[in-house]
Amino acid sequence: MSVFIIDGGVPLKGTVRISGAKNAILPSLAACLLTEEKTILKDVPDLEDVHTMCNLLNSLGAGTTFNKKDKEIIVDASSVNKYTAPYELVNQMRASFLVMGPLLARKGRAKVSLPGGCAIGSRPVDLHLKGLSALGANINTGHGYVEASVKGRLTGARIYLDFPSVGATENILMASVLAKGRTIIENAATEPEVVNLATLLVSMGANITGAGTDTIRVIGTDRLHGTEHAVIPDRIEAGTFMLAAAITGGSITLENVMTEHIKPISAKLREAGVEISEELGVVHVRSTSNPKAVDIKTHPYPGFPTDMQAQMTSFLSRAEGTSMIVETIFENRFMHISELKRMGARIKIDGRTAIIEGRVPLMGAQVKATDLRAGAALILAGLCAEGRTEISDIRHIDRGYERMEEKLRALGARIRRE
Ligand code: UD1
Q1: Atom of ligand 1 minimally distant from the CA of 94
Q2: Which residues of the chain have pLDDT under 70?
Q3: Is 384 designated active site?
Q4: Quick one: which atom of ligand 1 is closest to the CA of 236?
Q5: Is the beta carbon of 166 within 6 A of some atom in ligand 1?
Q6: For the chain, which has fewer Cβ within 10 Å, the N-terminal or C-terminal residue?
Q7: Could you read off the pLDDT of 159-193 as tens digits, one per residue?
């Protein structure tokens, strides 16, 4: 099993290009199941999760061709003839559950393993199922699977989500585009990845308005056609690199960034004293020698993203003063903290709140990535720690960061995979 070895203490300098967003490509791949024509997805990041989703589409009978040089995937879902997303794949990657809506809408049936818990909480799918059921699906759960079926077509409905879940919004949206009549999704998620999915669906011929607001309206169509679609840049990868510059006392430029999407991250970094300037698609980050403590509360978009919470914890260990982080989205997303403490961080947890003492010198240590963003937080800590850090279980990091160590090395970091 591979590990990352990091020798800390180098201020990062240079330019990095941000890859396509993991959380945009995964629903986009699922959406390709909605048409029998070919779909071409562009600016696709080469990530473990992307391979897992392609394997799932292949196992359903679709054909996927990943042209890595051109960052392009061609999906041919004309011969989809299976309806089951097995436990092994869903257990590996929760986003596999996103095939349920499209399979049900185009084929009238889907059987998907229940995702169960993961390192950051219990993560139920009740909102997905409530929405699909409102569209007319018969839903049965048993033996660890959810089976959904419909006779004929789904029927449009008015659906209110009790929480603006990203995955539930995407699953219901994908199901509704082929339903009979009008669907209204209220209290929908407004994340940029939902908007990117709606853009893809519209270019396949769907009739959708309001994506990016809390009310999405859909008028169902009989069939969708193939298209070409570009995946938006990854705002979480961008935020992670911004923090890598800030935590090492460095100064870097990020290319391929939607500056609008990283507003909550830029705002908090500016509050901490980090200099950030933006041009079209480009962000310059210049650290301050004396970052200040800031308080953070995670929220659905456009609030501060939960996917940046762990990385921010590492950074705030270096800031002047005491910071407070409140995690409101996931119930158990502080797994990185016990590992950061092994590196010398002084953090107390009280329920969903973490209190971080700043100006603490971090020391290299052997630590374990418990999930994707926890792994990113440990990389950041390792980059600024005194001495050597060894991070194990880096398969979690490979799920969502493309060539992380190569990109960091190009900025001067001493990091290698062993
Ligand atoms: C997506 C992102 C993930 C991010 C999260 C929140 C992808 C592939 N993953 O995950 O990186 O951290 O959004 O921004 O896009 N919930 C329910 N019932 C449901 C669905 C969700 O109670 O049916 C709860 C979850 O337990 C959680 C909250 O809603 O507490 C947010 O989850 P959700 O927005 O659905 O996250 P995901 O789509 O799984």
Answers
A1: 39
A2: 116-122
A3: no
A4: 11
A5: yes
A6: N
A7: 999 999 999 999 999 999 999 999 999 999 999 99
